[in-house]
Amino acid sequence: MPHPAPYDLLLTGGTVVSHDGRHRHDIAVRDGRIAAVGEGLAARAARDVRVVDAAGLLVLPGLVDVHVHFREPGMTEKEDFASGTRAAAAGGVTTVVDMPNTVPPVATAEEFRRKLNLVAPKAHVDFGLYGMLGQDNAEEMTAMAELGAMGFKLFMGQTTGDNRCPDDAAIFRGLEAAAAAGLVVGAHAENDHLLRMFIDRLRASGRTDPRAHLASRPAFVEVEAVTRIVTMATEAGTKLHIHHLSTGAGLRRVRDLRADGHRVSVEALVAHLLLDDSAYDTHGNLIKLNPPIRPAENVAELWAGIARGDVDVIATDHAPHTPAEQAEQDVWCAHGGFIGVETMLPLLLTAAAQDRLSVEDIVRLCSYTPARRWSMPGKGQLAPGFDADFVLVDPDATGTVDPATMHSRHNVTPYEGRPLTGAVVATYLRGESVYDKSGIVGAPRGRHVRPAPAGKR
Ligand SMILES: [Zn+2]
């Protein structure tokens, strides 16, 4: 008789959903990794193995949110790495990529090292860190790559932190540095000069209402920046990702560029998919976002892009501010962004229950593709050898978005009260529970995720 398999954990009876299908499979875990996936694993396991009964539940790979702002260092009145990663764990997100527009910005190797040491002990989920592609910091980018940077953020248009946007020559040198390191550059693609001009015009005209923000950022401001950065990245040989592409026109331009042989990945935000400009009437400046929440026709174009496969990734742009900041009445003084990492999966499951996409699509857009695009070792799939990062989902559970149960430092959300179909039951990080219905489980045990070396992808 063969010896029983020495598993640490056995997940039985669940329906395992991957990017391309679903199966009634058991999952066996050993040393934080998936040891086996298949039918009837319990019969082969040792008798004292810890068993989690997932009957009636869906088992998804933990989500990988490549766009969060957890505000450390320098803006911890808004959020910090502990509260942000607790919100992630409660939302079924097991890996986040945190943005570098903190105070100070992560634009040097010294700052990268300092931030890594600061946030690592507080992380309840695994995390990657972006460095900044700034004005003339190519050497620092190379050094940040050596320290394990997940990629580099390029702000072509201004946002929180009000960092100076690099000029085109600096952008090109940064793209070359990222290409040499084999890392992704993620662009915030809006033309800074144009949007500042429109803001000045609208201010001069006396507009201070929430919709003036939308008026200040017409679609061509995005289309121009997308065209320019894709063209430059192809020339430099850089892996380019467009964060929060927000317009149908931008998506059509990406299709044209791809038809011309350019390679680029594209992200849509949950907020751009679930909110339209009618929300300015109900939520005012709370939904101020860069790029802005746009009209319903545009939202429909983004959903069509998802259905066609033009959109590669869905992310949150989780961007917290204090309640006082979010109550600002003057649109030009209001801050951009709001929270989202904890509500992404429940809201997308609700969209799946409405047949707007499938749960397999959610896995592909929010876990499988991001893990592959950023070359995250062990992430994005429930297969032998991968990290045992998974989320148990009850697809039929109903409820509403309730800030009182949420985990960010401030839980002001435009989704408050929204009906939900589908809930996170438990989240596991490398084989250990980090969240269940009792709340956050255990001390922070998240790890820094470095991209796989260029030769091992
Ligand atoms: Zn962002």
UniProtKB/TrEMBL annotation:
Pathway: Nitrogen metabolism; (S)-allantoin degradation; allantoate from (S)-allantoin: step 1/1. It is an enzyme of class 3 (hydrolase). Residues 58-433 form the Amidohydrolase-related domain. Its EC number is 3.5.2.5. Keywords: Hydrolase, Metal-binding, Zinc. Its cofactor is Zn(2+). Catalyzes the reversible cyclization of carbamoyl aspartate to dihydroorotate. Belongs to the metallo-dependent hydrolases superfamily. Allantoinase family. Belongs to the metallo-dependent hydrolases superfamily. DHOase family. Class I DHOase subfamily. Homotetramer. This is allantoinase.
